[in-house]
Amino acid sequence: MRPLTLTRLLVRCGILAAILFAVVVLALKLGAVQVSLYGLGRDLIGLLLHRTNTLSTDYGMIVLDIRLPRILLGIVVGASLSVAGASFQALLRNPLADPYVLGVSSGAALGAIVALIIEGHLNLSPEMAGLITPIGAFIGAALTIAAVYVLGRRDGQIDSTTLLLGGIISASFLSAVIMMLMTTLSGNNLRGTAFWLMGDLSTPQPRSLLYFLSFGFIVAAGAIYTTASDLNLLLAGEKEAMHLGVDVPRVRIVVYLAASILTGLAVSVSGAIGYVGLLVPHVMRLIFGSDHRMLLPASALGGAIALVIADTLARTVTSPTDLPVGAMTAMAGAPLFIYLLRRKLA
Amino acid sequence: MSTVARHPFPGEPARSSSDVRLSVEQVSYAYAPHPSQAPLFTLEATSFQAKPGELIAILGPNASGKSTLLKLISGALGPLSGRIFLNGFATHSLPVKTRAQRIALVQQESRLLFPSRAWEFVLQGRHPYGGGLRFESEEDVIIAGNALAQVGATHLADRWMDKVSGGEKQRIILARALAQQPLLLLLDEPTLHLDIGAQVDLLESLRRLAAQNRYTVVVVTHELNLAGEYADQVVLMQRGKCLRVGTPATVLQREILEQVFQAPLSVEKTASGRPRVTLFNK
């Protein structure tokens, strides 16, 4: 018997954080403009130790003003999607659940588009206008997951197959509505929206939005983390968890709201990026086991690592043209998804 | 030393016998899929009492209301009328966490979404004693280890839950219930998927655990002879009615059993004075 201890938790998270740091440095180096890894590493360490206060002017602007914000966005979005995925898998007792498969991402996308349309008719200050999309996306996500939850219940218990079918049907219905709304858009807007829908991190976001996202992530993921050991028991079913002292309705509402916030925030800035929320928690579970006290932070860090890598590939594979990162994650994720299905995890 | 029983509800008559642990008092229940519809299933007023160390068997054919009665005792369901007290507290009104410290339920099927090791599973029994994020203490680990030892499953600690046999799994599930250190141990058809040897083993250990740890044990079963051999009291149910409550010898009698189970039977006394039921061909 070796139960999880705080030390072991922190050591493992430290290792993942170190990997994330290495991936970020690599992502800063790679791109259309060549940057030397040695020079960059030396400058970054100097910057961290306050020896210098700028990067070399040759590449400083590209690295700090273009690549870094995009990488930070990828970290927050990847972490949000993975934590949301791990939470949905436990809450809905379904190993194939994630925001994208369940249609929650589509719901959030629809919410964001509706919010954008409404925003055009309102006279809001620029700061408020920036927040209306995340809020719309959150409402869309929350309504969708509520609908899928109701569709997936049979005789008071969640039925795996019905739930997944409910999610897939919701996703296709919501996509149809999104298509209809998109025909009202024109020219540049249309291409931008289409790119965003596929999942995309290339749109520059204001710094204030990045702060807002990080803050939302910390609050929502923190709320989910307080239920971590309850989620362990929920894996055996709601009734059994109740008999072991889990306040099931409270856990359900906390996780449901927080996971909807995470999905809404991620989708509002990056569109519907698939498979990160599904696969990262599975890989982390294979490495660290299914204790959510370990799994949730590992998924957050793993999701960040995965999305930064995927986005770096999206930027560099067809350089100087960008691919939508959603296309990258789907290309890598779909085969893995099929592999998991064949292993009869469902 | 005189002890005053605690009564959470004012105006409630004081119960004289202080060593009654579980008291089921005129409990009834009705299940309807919709409040406006006639109930599909009703449980009529049922009463019995149990002391620490006693093993109670709830017997009856399918759909007799055995499991409903167990759910009511566990506090998962609230009774339509009547009350169920555990040490003077109504089980349904206890906070979920407190209830899990006092009542442990072993259910028919315990399916896991992702596999875990037996020791992890048993440690879950300590959940009612910890906060949301608390890591298990040394004490929790010792209690879980003892629980595994009590059911003779120490050697299974590092095995995966989906890689053990039905009987082994049942013992590990029982160990998790013991780790809860309950006053009341409830088991819903624990012998269902077990062969006869494992069934006897399980009932033997329940008997022993009830005596050693002063648990009150309530087992739902339709194994007449296991109930006859191991129970202190038998509650016989049929179609939502409690027909008889008493010692195995007074409840397990030919006429009433033939009527309840709709089959020709004979009942003999064994050397130990316990009833033994044999089924005839029609």
Descriptive notes:
The complex is a heterodimer of chains A (about 350) and B (about 280). Chain A has about 350 residues and is mostly helical. Chain A has one domain: ABC transporter involved in vitamin B12 uptake, BtuC (Orthogonal Bundle). Chain A contains 14 helices and 2 strands. Chain A has helices at about 5-30, 35-50, 60-90, 105-120, 125-150, 160-180, 185-195, 205-225, 230-235, 240-245, 250-270, 275-290, 290-315, 325-340; strands at about 155, 155-160. Chain A has a two-stranded antiparallel sheet. The longest helix of chain A is centred in the N-terminal third of the chain and has 32 residues, at about 60-90. Chain A starts with 5 loop residues before the first helix and ends with a helix. With about 280 residues, chain B is of the alpha/beta class. Chain B has one domain (about 20-245): 3-Layer(aba) Sandwich (Rossmann fold). Chain B is about 30% helix and about 25% strand. Chain B contains 9 helices and 12 strands. Chain B has helices at about 65-75, 95-100, 120-125, 140-150, 165-180, 195-215, 225-230, 250, 255-260; strands at about 20-30, 40-50, 55-60, 80-85, 90, 105, 185-190, 215-220, 235-240, 240-245, 265-270, 275-280. Chain B has a 6-stranded mixed β-sheet with strand order 6-7-8-3-9-10, with helices on both faces.
Instruction: Please tell me what the overall shape of chain A is.
Output: globular
Low-confidence stretches of chain A: none
> Order of strands side by side in the largest beta sheet of chain A?
1-2
Taking the sheet with the most strands of chain B, its summary is: 6 strands, mixed
The best one-word shape of chain B is: globular
Biggest beta sheet summary of chain A? 2 strands, antiparallel
**What is the C-alpha radius of gyration of chain A, as a whole number of Å?**
20 Å
**Name given to the CATH homologous superfamily of chain B:** P-loop containing nucleotide triphosphate hydrolases
> For the terminal residues of chain A, how far apart are their CA atoms?
29 Å
- State the CATH architecture of chain B: 3-Layer(aba) Sandwich
Strand elements of chain B, count: 12
Strand content of chain B is 15-25%
Runs of chain B in which pLDDT lies below 50 for 5 or more consecutive residues are 1-17
Rg of chain B, alpha carbons: 19 Å
Order of helices and strands of chain B: EEEHEEHEHHHEHEHEEHHEE
Oligomer: heterodimer
| Total number of distinct structural domains of chain B | 1
Instruction: Return the CATH topology of chain B.
Output: Rossmann fold
Given helix and strand content, the structural type of chain A is mainly alpha
Order of helices and strands of chain A: HHHHHEEHHHHHHHHH
